[in-house]
Amino acid sequence: MVYQQIEDKLKTRKDRAKRAVALAMQNQWPDAVALNQSLIEDFPDDLEAYNRMGKALTEIGNIGEAKAAFQRVLQISPYNTIAKKNLDRLEQLGDELPRHHVINQGAARAFIEESGKTGVSSLVNTAQAKILVQMSPGDDVTLQLDNRRVNVTDATSGDKLGQVEPKIASRLKRLMSVGNRYQATVKSVDDHKMTIIIRETYKDPSQASIVSFPPKAPPGAYIPTSVLGQELGEDVRAAEAKRINDAKDWSDDDTEPGDDEAFTPNIHRIINSDGEDGNSDY
Description:
The structure is a single chain. The protein has helices at residues 2-25, 29-42, 47-59, 63-76, 81-93, 107-110, 129-132, 166-177, 225-228, 234-247, 259-263, and strands at 118-122, 140-146, 149-154, 160-163, 181-189, 194-202. It is of the alpha+beta class. It has two domains: 2-93, Serine Threonine Protein Phosphatase 5, Tetratricopeptide repeat, CATH 1.25.40.10; 107-263, Alpha-Beta Plaits (2-Layer Sandwich). Helix 2 packs antiparallel against helix 3 (47-59) and helix 4 (63-76) runs antiparallel to helix 5.
């Protein structure tokens, strides 16, 4: 009897958590705050509920309460990366309210890796911290050809965020110049680095036999847990990290001579009060 009661309680908790995630995906932030708050009342140590509530509170501009939610997570779990990165971001913003992010209903698809059609790039020559911290996982970015570079800009504001890393940019540059089209989405971001996922959306007939991103690992899926305020287990994160690392190990290195020099950042433009590197995922 007692066992059944525990099972029922856990099932109820799981169902309510799913509803909280759905509210976030529908940008219903006040309702998301209320539901996560009720979860916390029944399950005081629910880290995911606190992280989700912190995200929702941030979206409606209750920064003080959002910080308190993330700080509570760190009281329970001092090394929780989602809470730490969110607090760092809010501290970087200072008195400036974060930009409101509307979660695209089709955003999840952007994080589904398809063999040959998607690739991951860590940006080089990244923008200043005050620009990067305004971005969130799931935000759309724009790819722009610029001589030997592929610039990445915020699709909303037009702010320059950085450049695609040389090996990938060299290939994209040639494919885009003959008609291929790509869309890109923020995978992870903090105050000094950003990673994006790039997806082929149109292949020019002349490139029918050319693969945009030569695969190095089986395709999989990555959903930015920061968007929903949840954290993956260590084994899942490790597997994801290995897949991403493998995907970036391009065997057919067709970088043109001089590309590495062209993309190497001469000055790493980071604004950080303590002079050290800071810490999407949300």
